[in-house]
Amino acid sequence: MPGPEIPAETPGRYSNLCRPDEVRTCFGCCPPIRPAAYDHTDHRPALERQFQENARLVESRIDRPAVINGLSCWGLGFLDPDRTRVGCLLHPAHRAGRDLRGLTGYGDKCRRELCREAEIFARLPADQASLVLGPARGLDAFAYSSRSYNPVFRLLRWGPAVIAGLAALEPGGLTPESYRTRWSVLDRDLGPGRDGYAVETLLGRLSLAELARPEFLARYDRVWEDFIRKHRAVYHPPRDNRPFVHQLDVPPSLARFMRLVLGRPRASVSEGRRLRAEAEVLLAGL
Questions:
Q1: 284 Cβ neighbours under 8 A, 6+ residues apart
Q2: 76 with 30: CB under 8 angstroms?
Q3: Around Cβ 57, how many Cβ atoms within 10 Å?
Q4: Which helix (H) or strand (E) holds 76?
């Protein structure tokens, strides 16, 4: 069952990953300022009390709104009497299309931003979106919002090409158990940042099932780690005017690999081309 409809003229960016149905909700992007590696599940008892109070007091606070400091938000609370769904009490989805998020002072930020996973999910065909949500079946709002407990976040970071390859092999969909059992290559063995570009490239001639074979996986991991050691940056020029890697004409997954794994936030056009060509030759030989 889909989430509530939002009038088309309501400003903002939306993704059904945030509320794919009437059971699951994600509040991972709220409050708007969070420490690195913050996870709501680490503070669940205190947050449950806060969310209950916010839901009880929200109407009176709307009448006398206060700007928040960003580290917590009086607009975040339980959305239902059973206290199973958590979300923005000021969101237009819960206000008949009226957007009251500006009352907190962070309305523009809340309207503007989506996590990368939500952006990827919003572009998936309906059948692939349904497949991706399978591993999150049964999670409550806290677990669904957590990158530690919800495997969907990691799966989405693999990107559309890998998800399409998975969908071709799982036409009947996925359950949490089937995903953990059959697809440890995506869930645990490899990582989207380190291996996303390589896996995308290999899918040009191999299926995910072939790539996941233990003997192939061991050979790939050894060869790819050697490639990383060879190209990992050990020195950054103090005045570097080269383009940022995301500005190069390379796949986004390769740009992330260069920045996050090789430690190369900048590279010349020729450096990007050489690295891509060498990687393609290496992967073709596996």
A1: 205
A2: yes
A3: 13
A4: strand 76-78
One digit per residue, the tens of pLDDT, for the chain of length 286 reads 444 454 444 555 678 999 998 889 999 999 999 888 899 999 999 999 999 999 999 999 999 999 999 999 999 999 999 999 999 999 998 899 899 999 999 999 999 889 999 999 999 999 999 999 999 999 999 999 999 999 999 999 999 999 999 999 999 999 999 999 999 999 999 999 999 999 999 999 999 999 999 999 999 999 999 999 999 988 777 778 999 999 999 999 999 999 999 999 999 999 999 999 999 999 999 9
C-alpha separations of 267 from 80, 156, 227, 241, 256 in Å: 50, 27, 17, 9, 12
Query: Phi/psi zone of residue 97: left (φ > 0), alpha (ψ -120 to 50 degrees), beta?
Result: left
Distance of CA 9 to the CA centre of its chain: 26
What does DSSP assign to residue 191? -
| 3-state secondary structure string across 219-251 | HHHHHHHHHHHHHCCCCCCCCCCCCEHHHCCCC
Q: Which long-range contacts (CB under 8 A, 24 or more apart) does 76-85 make?
A: 76/27, 76/30, 76/31, 76/51, 77/50, 77/51, 77/52, 77/53, 78/51, 78/52, 78/54, 79/25, 79/55, 83/48, 83/51, 83/52, 84/23, 84/140, 84/141, 85/22, 85/23, 85/24, 85/25, 85/141
Q: What is the pTM of this model?
A: 0.91
Contact of 78 with 55, CB cutoff 8 Å = yes
What the block records as the tokens of 245 is 């890697």
Residue 54 to residue 27: CA distance in whole angstroms: 14
